[in-house]
Design goal:
Helix content is 30%, strand content 17%. It is of the alpha/beta class. It has a 5-stranded parallel beta sheet with strand order 2-1-6-5-7, with helices on both faces. The structure holds S-adenosylmethionine.
Length: 260
């Protein structure tokens, strides 16, 4: 299988050096599972000063990225038949784990990073999708771009040591993950639940299901479309229900269901 290509148009290519020190992502780069191709917007700038920005028409604070350099940079990238262009903007759709899963079936993602006051409106025509990292404003699109590279790379086959770990992770399935513990058994008078050292795998699985359900209802019941199925589940029913219950209720939404 060929590498997954991330082509990033940015004024700050050095920011992406962080990817060389990020554990799983660094290994994916070393194993050629991914390639991060940086396209320095400055090199596509106008005139001898390589100008990339200008004052906004109509007045107002700050500078706006000009369209020509971004178009030239985008045109210079060789596109595969399974390629998508994403524009980083706080005005876009908020990134979800489902997007990363869907895009992991492509083999190229081109990411355009804005800076300053943003970009000329005509740049939007280059984008298949406009993506926001969340409802807040950052100074540039580099951190959102690295988030996409990071989150998508760990979904690619061969990246994680144990791909099973994706199955019950928060946001890969409709429920938040259950509480996790490691040694020591008692820490600052906080004890690991006895069930986890009981050796009874069936009971451990049921406990995890129950905690996942409780935690999701407490913190993020917005994640579950078919809420009525869960809110009607009392503790006793959770214990009686099988994985099939979750599978039949949630598989359509997520493709995965938890592998407690
Ligand atoms: C200071 S922001 C510009 C915000 C713009 N003036 C607006 O109000 O929509 C500069 C650049 O950072 C990036 N950026 C900032 N916040 C972001 C977010 N939440 N998600 C994705 N990109 C973001 C975008 O590329 C944006 O063009």
């Amino acid at each position: 299988m060929g590498s997954f290509n991330f082509d990033v148009i940015t004024l700050f290519p050095k920011a992406f050096e962080l990817l060389d020190n990020l554990g799983v992502i660094t290994r994916a780069l070393e194993k050629n599972l991914i390639r991060v191709n940086l396209h320095n917007l400055r090199e596509f700038g106008e005139g001898s000063y390589k100008q990339v920005d200008d004052k906004p028409y109509g007045g107002g604070a700050g500078m706006v990225l000009k369209p020509e350099p971004i178009y030239r940079a985008h045109e210079s990238i060789i596109k595969s038949s399974k390629s998508k262009t994403l524009l980083m903007t706080p005005q876009g759709r908020v990134l979800k784990q489902k997007d990363l899963l869907e895009w992991s079936n492509l083999d190229q993602i081109i990411i355009i990073c804005g800076q300053y006051e943003g970009f000329d409106e005509r740049v939007r025509h280059l984008a298949d999708e406009e993506i926001s990292l969340g409802d807040y404003v950052l100074s540039g699109g580099e951190i959102p771009a690295m988030s996409i590279i990071n989150g998508l790379t760990r979904l690619l086959p061969g990246t994680l040591g144990d791909p099973e770990s994706l199955l019950n992770e928060s946001h890969n399935c409709p429920l938040l993950e259950y509480p996790q513990y490691t040694r020591p058994f008692v820490f600052k008078e906080m004890k690991v639940p006895d069930i986890l050292v009981s050796g009874n795998h069936k009971e451990i699985k049921l406990w995890r299901m129950q905690k996942s359900v409780e935690r999701t209802l407490e913190r993020r019941d917005d994640l579950i479309k078919s809420k009525k199925n869960l809110t009607s589940l009392n503790t006793q029913r959770v214990k009686q229900e099988s994985e099939e219950f979750f599978k039949s209720n949630f598989e359509d939404d997520y493709g995965f269901y938890p592998n407690w």
